[in-house]
Amino acid sequence: MPSPTPGRTVLYRLSDHDAQVINQRRNDYATSAKSTRTGFIAHVGNEAVEGAVYPAVVVRVWDHEPPAVNLAVHLDGNDTYWATSRLEGDDVGQWAWPEVK
Fold this sequence. Notes:
- By secondary structure, the chain is of the alpha+beta class.
- It has one domain.
- Helix content is about 15%, strand content about 30%.
- A hairpin with a 5-residue loop joins strand 2 and strand 3 (about 70-75).
- It is elongated and about 45 Å long.
């Protein structure tokens, strides 16, 4: 397997905590006053659920053993999720390399 490096695309599996944070941000936007200011970021998208898999870009690799990475997770909506210090694996809250077909 390749080593994770900044810019590589991997797959990230949301944990229950991740989903709660994402859904809370989206709910906060839906129930608050809508802003028309330039630069305001609305968090809008389909509900996030534990175990859902999304593409993510490696932003930083921490020099640990095993290596941990920070990820910009591309959600099913107009926002992203910042997943920090995540390990490779098949469990929720972990990332994996995409399958090669």
